[in-house]
Write a structure and sequence with these properties.
The protein is mainly β and 363 residues long. It has one domain: Beta-galactosidase, Chain A, domain 5 (Distorted Sandwich), CATH 2.70.98.10. The chain is built from two helices and 28 strands. The strands form seven sheets. A nine-stranded antiparallel β-sheet has the order 11-12-13-14-28-24-23-18-21, with no helix packed on it. A six-stranded antiparallel β-sheet has the order 17-26-25-22-19-20, with no helix packed on it. The protein is globular and about 55 Å long. The relative contact order is 0.17.
């Protein structure tokens, strides 16, 4: 896609939280044709307009038109997740001989756990946000401080997240955090995609490729068992592009039954911490494609199995069952309780740093 104009950032008032906090929206207009709208409440991406193969823009992410949508409904639409993305078994972990207890806010299979940082996660914070522009590159630098004991987690955690929209239609997210006590940290962006456009049917006809030969299988509570499973010969094999709906209802597969489709962590083939290709999502009728690269060791593929027709999107259309999918770059779920998984423990004096990029194109 060639450049279509001058990049810019526009700020406007979006609304107030129930606590009376002002929420602002930042419209990032990219020189390459992509337009993003981000609110400082939860660092949510409210809208993401990308061109199809004919240059026609459509909003390809799920969201709401007001703050109440993000406060009252909890689908984590395009929010910034922390302190710990994904699930922690029984809402407990032991660190340096001490056991910590977290809020239980999720119950898949009737088994309780702590999900996405607890009842009040980073997607519920109003982030201190500073827009920036450097030539054709625009973005937002956002900061919060999570106090010691926040949602049961130890340590004061200072977090800086930078959203950058580059002229080649790449959205880059850089995460950084420091702590004064040892604590688990696993930040991610929970953006949902439907490359046909929000409210334009399901994602079952999207083609997906994930650069991973293994997944971390789960129990009925969607908690990893601690083992690794090779995807070859299973419905989880996306090592070559495959239509999502083709094997999503494979009833004889225990993992598919547990997840109600796809809701599992993929062990990315690149594990050296450098930015490397992780996944590619393609929709043939529009030609839209998203290429994801990350420094993280895992990516959670969630196919919208818990979505219902109760969600109404920004254009007034119903966002139904499997009306969007998430590809969350991350460390593995329940890592604080899984000694064989890459560590998520951040200690004083160290800096948590990860990066993920999404490249938007069409063919």
């Amino acid at each position: 896609m060639k450049k279509t104009g001058k990049a810019s950032v526009e700020k406007s008032f979006f609304g107030k939280t129930k606590k009376g906090e002002d929420v602002h929206k930042y419209r990032l207009i990219g020189a390459g044709g992509v337009v993003m709208e981000v609110i400082d409440y939860g660092a949510h991406v409210v809208s993401l307009l990308t061109p199809d193969r004919n240059g026609k823009l459509a909003d390809i992410t799920l969201g709401f038109n007001d703050v109440a949508g993000y406060e009252d409904i909890e689908p984590y639409f395009a929010g910034l997740i922390g302190r710990f993305g994904n699930r922690i078994a029984n809402g407990k972990f032991t660190l340096d001989g001490k056991t910590y207890t977290l809020p239980l806010n999720n119950e898949p299979g009737g088994i309780k756990c702590s999900l996405h940082g607890g009842i009040v996660g980073f997607n519920d914070y109003v982030w201190v946000t500073e827009p920036f522009q450097n030539g054709d590159t625009v973005g937002l630098k956002m900061k919060i401080t999570s106090p010691d004991g926040d949602q049961g987690y130890p340590g004061k955690l200072d977090v800086t997240v930078t959203y950058t929209l580059k002229p080649d239609n790449v959205w880059r997210v850089d995460y950084e955090a420091v702590t004064d006590k040892a604590t688990p940290v696993n930040l991610t962006q929970h953006i949902f995609f439907n490359l046909k456009g929000e409210g334009e049917g399901t994602i079952l006809d999207h083609e997906l490729m994930i650069n991973a030969d293994k997944v971390t299988p789960v129990n009925a509570g969607l908690i990893p068992t601690g083992q690794y499973m090779n995807v070859k010969g299973t419905p989880f094999d996306f090592t070559v592009p495959w239509e999502i709906g083709d094997r999503i209802n494979t009833k004889e597969n225990e993992q598919i039954k547990f997840c109600g489709g796809y809701d599992i962590n993929y062990v990315l083939n690149s594990q050296d911490g450098h930015l490397a290709p992780a996944a590619c999502l393609y929709e043939r009728t529009t030609g839209r494609k998203v290429i994801i690269s990350t420094t993280e060791p895992g990516i959670q593929f969630y196919s919208g199995n818990f979505m219902t027709d109760k969600n109404i999107g920004k254009n007034g259309k119903v966002i139904g069952y499997r009306g969007g999918l998430a590809l969350e770059t991350q460390h593995y779920p329940d890592s604080p309780n899984q000694p064989t998984f890459p560590s998520t423990i951040l200690r004083p004096g160290a800096v948590y740093q990860t990066t993920t990029e999404w490249k938007f194109t069409a063919e």
